[in-house]
Amino acid sequence: MKKITKPNTAVIILLAVMIVLSFTNLFNFQLNGEPLKLAGISVIVGIIAYFTTRKTNENKYDGFNIKTFLRSLKDKKVILLILLTLIINVVCFVIAKLCLPEYIEHVGARVDGILDLASVPRLFLELVVLALGEEIAWRAFFQKQTSKIMPFVPSLILTSALFALGHFNFGTPIIVFYDLLFVFIDSLVYGIIFKVSDNAWCSFSAHFLANLLSTVLYFF
């Protein structure tokens, strides 16, 4: 049976910082009249935390190993889960188009200032960087470390709830709920992919493709 190393004090503190930062989206902090997206800092904290605490893993490449990426993609479960994320995003946009057209505008407002929708090459690069950063932070670090403290399912739910909070944007309650619900569901699937593969490159693949598909659907 594989030995699990419990998180040390530094890791616990970094996990707590990410949790606190995620909740800041619920408060309308502003600077010179512009909203401060402090929750986004949690991703930066998570990335730094992963690379500075890798020695606490059984293997320092646990959770983020490019060498095993292609081998992990040969697992049919991983491929089916990646396809599931694409289906979920199509369902999300179809329902929104039919019943909640305000959702499209809400998503546009949420990513405004984060993604450059005017330049295709830059947008593509931004989607890669954002998805990879979030997977390192939330799966390779946060989910990996919390799974050492609690069973997988609570860890998955906690990670996904905080991940969804990090995407919170003020708006009509039903639209906000709908938006966060699908972000939460997406995150659950990313987390399961990470659990199955123990590789954030796999969950990144699902995350990036889902975001890319959502961006295409956004314009249609």
Layout of SSEs?
Layout: H1 9-23, E1 30-31, E2 34-35, H2 41-52, H3 69-73, H4 76-99, H5 102-111, H6 120-146, H7 152-165, H8 173-197, H9 200-218
Antiparallel strand pairs: 1-2
Helix pairs in contact: 1-2, 2-6, 4-8, 4-9, 5-8, 6-7, 6-9, 7-8, 8-9
Descriptive keywords:
220 residues, mainly alpha, two-stranded antiparallel ribbon, 9 helices, 2% strand, globular
Summarize the entry for a quick read.
The chain is about 70% helix and about 0% strand. The chain is mostly helical and about 220 residues long. The protein has one domain (about 10-220).
Question: In words, what does this structure look like?
Answer:
With 220 residues, this protein is mostly helical. It has one domain. It is built from nine helices and two strands. It has helices spanning 9-23, 41-52, 69-73, 76-99, 102-111, 120-146, 152-165, 173-197, 200-218; strands spanning 30-31, 34-35. A two-stranded antiparallel sheet has the order 1-2. Helix 6 (120-146) runs antiparallel to helix 7.
